[in-house]
Amino acid sequence: MAEREDGVVIVGAGPVGLTLAIDLARRGVPVTVLEQRRAGEPPSVKCNHISSRSMEIYRELGLAGALRDAGLPADYPNDATYNVSVMGAELTRIRIPCRAERYTAKGYVDSDWPTPEPPHRINQVFAEPILFAHAKAQPNIRILSRVAVERVTQDATGAAAYGRNLDSGEPVSVRGRWLVGCDGGHSVVRKSVGIKLIGDAEVSKLCSTHIRAPDLLGRIPHPRAWMFHAVNPRHHGIVVAIDGREEWLIHTPLPAGRADFEGFDADAALRAVLGVGADFSYEILGREKWTARRLVAAELRHGRVFLSGDAAHLWIAVAGYGMNAGIADAMNLSWMLAAVHHGWAPEAILDAHDRERHPITEQVSRFVTALAVRSIKDAPRGGNVPAEIEADGPAGDAVRAEIGQRLYDINLPQFFCAGLNYGYFYDRSPLVAYDGEEAPAYTMDGYTPSTVPGCRAPHLWLDDGRSLYDAMGPGFSLLRLDPAVEVEGLLAAAAARGVPLDLVDVRSDEAAALYDRKLVLARPDRHVAWRGDRVPADPEALIDLVRGATMAPAAAPTERADA
Fold first, then answer.
1. Which of 73, 66, 180 is nearest to 129 (CA)?
2. CA angle, 120 as apex, 119 and 123 as ends, to 5°?
3. Which of 39, 243, 263, 306 is placed for a possible disulfide with 145 were both Cys, Cβ 3.0 to 4.6 Å?
4. pTM of the predicted protein model
5. What is the mean pLDDT of residues 28-54?
6. How far from chain centre, in Å, is Cα 542?
7. Is the dihedral of CA 158, 330, 561, 559 positive or negative?
8. 3-class DSSP state for residue 1?
9. What confidence score (pLDDT) does residue 294 get?
10. Given this model, what pLDDT does residue 372 score?
């Protein structure tokens, strides 16, 4: 028999599951997290980047400082380079400041991004323990480690996870009012409720090798870099600095035309990417052969079960947006679950999660896949690399300069992806009061700040030196650009329905250029829910719309067979 219903059950204690748990807990929702690994067991060296938008979230959760202080050495450049091989000639370098200079650096593409938190290049092995320790310390969070979930069920009042303790073999069952699968690409939760993945089953195949090589950094004849890309006639690949000292992650794609890894010499490919011979030795800490895909779950919600992170979407690792898209999923879902838990929103509001996040997931997956395909098609890779790239003299210099410029132009957007961070908007949400103006279009690297409902509320610095986001509370925020505008009716309407709403008077020299209305209602996730120059004639109707009270009742969850 499963435990009594209580709060939210999260399957998976990776960055997405832990972020969801932390945000739910601070909103007063009890959470149980189930994880196969031992408490404190390090993850694989999978994710290497926390986006600016995610760092904004961690700033709100009080974790940005701890994360920023971890990872590569403080003075280690975060540059991304393209080389013939890591030891060979450098074709181009995309400059990214080290973390010690991240808040003060000037002259970089993202130096003036409109955010209190620039991105942070950090491997998951450093980031996840910080999230885990913080989650473990929260009274509203219970973490059950060494639990393998084998199936999930649901009924009209709750959902349950059933599995076993991997150490004792004893059965484990946990029931909650809601259940969220943050359990990765092979999600048991997704399969249990019969949700299918749709898209491209294969974009490329790669071999990823995690190595320890204490003398590699000293061999490299170039300034340090966070990420080296190798492009030569024998092989191409990516080398990522994990600790800035001796640990590295090396991605070597399967050569074009090969259907599988049979006969693939991973060591030879690795040495071709590094540009080293037999005298170079290394220790393998882990190796995985995997397929890059573009797959999105057909639905992110089925009844009382939700999907987030890799359980909901899988795509090639361009722009570092797998984990970060999952964190955005979590924060969208968290405030809605908390609203239902505390009774100020009906269960119908939860349908908005799929209606908002699913189109964005599709968009992001196509952005990153298109860039990956363009990089393969338009820039010399693998067997298409001319032999002259390794030639001495003017002819070789000319080839390297031409290829380097092409690689720079194609790949700059993925390292400075302002559009993916700030440009996406919800254009068909039942929780947003649209006013007829279209949101500005965006690209991977470009966007226009806007108060059009559905967009991210434009960030600015207040005259007192604070970030606008620091002045906003965890609930809704009514941003008032003109202190003379009367807002009591809207505040009273929110209070009458129990909706958390803070009034923030915006005093900033930047405001006039960014905010073209005197009032902007921002949601807990910082997206604009409504704007106007005065409180609407029926403020109760607006509050009912943004809290989901005008939506049709959510469909009753039904049991589905295991898939």
1. 66
2. 140
3. 39
4. 0.94
5. 94
6. 31
7. positive
8. coil
9. 81
10. 66
